[in-house]
D-TA family PLP-dependent enzyme
Amino acid sequence: MTNSIHLLDTPALLLDLTLLENNLDEISAIAKKNQIQWRPHIKTHKSIHIAKMQLAKGACGITVAKLEEAEIMANSGIKDILIAYPISSSQKLTRLRQLTLKATLTIAIDSVEQAKRVNEAFEGEKPITVWLKVNSGLNRCGVDIEEVVEIASVIKRLSNLHFNGIFTHAGHSYAATSIEQIKEIAENEAKVVLEAAKLCEDLGHQITHKSIGSTPTFKYGAEVEGITEIRPGNAAFYDMCQVGLGVTSTSQCALTVLSSVVSIKRDRIIFDTGSKALSLDQGAHGNKSVVGYGKVINHPKIILARLSEEHGVATFLDKTDLSLTDKVQIIPNHACVVANLFDEYFVHRDGEIVDTWQVDARGKMR
């Protein structure tokens, strides 16, 4: 293995171990300060190694987006997993039953029909733990508050479901235009979960888990009395979308892409990192505070203006001091998408490579 990051071939996915540790310690400290649990979403990093780091630093379990991610993590020995996605197909329910032999699973319930399908699939099995997902403004999955009583009443009659939690995802916080707006979204996120929990408790359900926390909102939602858990994912790495929102700075961004200059023209410079290395993501609704397709570290006058599959085309003001084959680090706009584009992390500390970690759940979408 090479020692210096600048001896690596490119493109390469770099992970600053010091910044990763600092970010995880910060999340853990916020959870401890507010006496709540921390269940990080691993779709950001898709790494068994990082998931186990999070557990070692106090996480109560993990959150995954897809069943296939849960299978990867359970097979590594991780035991407490929330699948924050509605599962209803017969193929997936069969796999889910098999996976309950390896780990303690919790799944999202999003509709009456899905609840009934899950209940039928677990006939004769140990009841599966379910949490009701509520819509707090993202308008994606999740039941509206007006539907909670209806679905909770149905669940009460389904003996193969063990219902003990309410959760939401305030993903619309990524479109916020100020910290004040993010705080308002966090307060509403918590309010909706607590209101839904109260409605369910009035029906006789015991709701012990009240879970919130997108990366922009988790610091604020964690302070709301009654909330029991936060689930930030991106906060392990951070990225330029988070910087643009004002929730972090570039000095906390742990993930970068190492890129080489492959061509220099009169009015542009071309890197070997196109959409297959950086993605075309510019944040929710094309967040106006996100400029270009990533930030080139130590080169503030260079803007990654457009990406094709293999080329990152940048403009520059006045002139650039970069030469052919020079290497730069680029902070991606959306770290979660970029991690899924690579096979491995080159883990470094103070500019020296100390390890490589696999992106174990890369491409696991089923």
Q: What stands out?
A: Residues 13 and 257 are 5 Å apart (CA to CA). DSSP finds eleven helices and 17 strands in the chain. The domain at 5-12+246-358 is CATH 2.40.37.20 (Lyase, Ornithine Decarboxylase; Chain A, domain 1). The chain has two domains: 5-12+246-358, 18-233.
